[in-house]
């Protein structure tokens, strides 16, 4: 027996509620189940229960076994002093509050029907599953339920990403421009170089970036210099030598310390994603839009962002992917697919966080924007497609990634709207 089933049963009252009795055989009447609490403290706040003709107002705590009360240390926690009913599967030990008073216990084992237990086991204990527990039935859930649940999941994902943004804000004393710079930098590094690019962004004082942003060569020299790409003495390209000179000048002028962090790599990357190309593109973005944060806050639709990131790497990179080695000539612009990645991973999360910081609720507009971005393609989304659950936009693909990682892989079926819908349908 899992505690999440008992939470579900109490929330939905899916048990025989007539002639309920405590373990001491006192009659129980449930007037109000209380408010479900997902944070620390009792599981349900402000419940109203009548026990032996006495009405009580307080909290409800739920455990698999009543002895879990002591295993979790609740007898020493004042947050549990106002528990009026202990709901358990098996009552194996009497429990008491700090003041020594006994807490009434309801053992649900005596009131649950076998059909519900069987349905729960078939859903959550699906040993034959290849992907997710409900893979055989997920496509039978109504689209309106999927839609509402995906909206909640996407907001949940934004809230998670906000934690990282808040950490960056603390490190920059609430400098939103510096945080945006760091996050966009990380995004341009993609999976392989994301952390290295982020470390480089933290190493560079954003005030210096702002001061040199109007000079593209200086901006590139900062990025390439910190990345360690300007240390090769054997390269004699004019562009390379100019970058070296600029970096030496800027390093002395702004007292830039040597970067000792993780270095960007080339191995395993497509040439278009080489760190040299991405850093040059990033320099061009900041050169063309020195007030990038303000520009991003002004953008409201996908076309605005396409125009904002419509830049190319410097002319040198038209026929290079690395310093000193020529390649077939091709302009290295930022693709629309890449703009989608930046939008979903950085821009929408930072807009969401900034609106919350200002006390504005702009969630609907952000959801609409995410809905205009094409869906991502990855193994998780492909497998949802195969079980008959299509994905129409990046909003939906992000929601499904949150669903899979936060619920499906950890058997949180009874905290999932799809899972509870399937279970309710069978009982």
Protein architecture, described:
There is one protein chain. The protein has 427 residues and is α+β, with helices and mostly antiparallel strands. 48% of the residues lie in helices and 11% in strands. The chain has 17 helices and 9 strands. It has helices at 3-12, 68-71, 114-124, 143-171, 176-188, 190-203, 206-212, 216-227, 238-253, 275-288, 292-298, 302-308, 336-357, 363-371, 379-386, 394-406, 417-425; strands spanning 20-21, 27-32, 35-36, 44-51, 54-65, 83-90, 105-107, 320-322, 325-326. The strands form 2 sheets. Strands 1, 2, 3, 4, 5, 6 and 7 form a 7-stranded mixed sheet that branches. Helix 4 (143-171) packs across helix 13, helix 4 (143-171) packs across helix 16 and helix 13 runs antiparallel to helix 14. The chain starts with a helix and ends with a helix.
